[in-house]
Amino acid sequence: MPKKSIIDFQKMKAGGEKVTFITSYDFPTAQFAEAAGVDMILVGDSLGMCVYGYEGTIPVVMDQMIYHAEAVRRGAPSVFLVGDMPFMSYQSSLEKAVENAGRFLKEAGCDAIKLEGGVRITKQIRAIVDAGIVVMGHIGLTPQSSGQLGGHKAQGRTVESARLLIEDAIAVHEAGAQMLLLEAVPPEVGGLIAELLPIPVFGIGGGGETDGQLLIVSDVI
User: Fold this and answer.
1) Which residues are catalytic?
2) In degrees, to the nearest 5, what angle opens at C-alpha 196 toward C-alphas 190 and 200?
């Protein structure tokens, strides 16, 4: 099948068709994903735990991400590919954010990038979008900043925290992100944000009312 584009995902959302979305970190699992007809692959910084055995995502660096994204692209040349911006690859300056986002396209053939955060990273999102790169936002449980959240815990479980999540979602969309990932949020909140935003909204523990579910390939196996 031909590789889907962001336009296809928007049409799928409008038509109520779910997007299939999985992580991959290497050539063979990418081949399996393409053969299965998966719509989109994320080369996630979750490879820190799933491949390298780190305790979290913090130690992962850009060169590791590029190395694995290259392998995944070779294994799945016809699948929409998203590269995950690792910790400190975009926080320190707009210039660094754009440069590192561009590496995923230039060196690994990715179709989009993903980065964590809501209101606080809207400047980075705008800068990367202005460079012509498709951006997927990521809010809720954001592992790179899980220390500030008190650990890997579900988010949006109170009225106030749900309100903040919705504000983050709107800010990410208004900054130019064309997709959004919600991690570890109540299904009611996930469904509300998916209904509220015109862009595709995916869940990883975000309830069945989102526009698709991201699965970690290691969990699937």
Assistant:
1) 183
2) 70
Supply the mean pLDDT for the chain: 94
| pTM of the predicted model over 0.90 | yes
Handedness of CA 192, 197, 198, 203 (dihedral sign): negative
Q: Taking the C-alpha atoms of 219, 70, 126 and 57 in order, what is their torsion angle to the nearest 10 degrees?
A: 40
User: In the structure, how many helices (H) and strands (E) does the chain have?
Assistant: 9, 8
Q: Residue 147 burial (CB < 10 Å; 0-12/13-18/19+)? A: exposed
What separation, in Å, do the N-terminal and C-terminal C-alpha atoms of the chain show? 24
pLDDT in tens, 77-88: 999 999 999 999
For the chain, which residues score pLDDT lower than 70? 143-157
Which pLDDT score is estimated for 148?
A: 56
How far does CA 3 lie from the centroid of its chain? 18
Q: Please check whether residue 38 is in contact with residue 21, taking contact to mean a CB–CB distance below 8 angstroms.
A: yes
- In angstroms, the CA 112 to CA 101 distance is 8
Q: What is the pLDDT of residue 142?
A: 73
Cα 166 from chain centre: 17
Burial of 67 (0-12, 13-18, 19+ CB in 10 A): middle
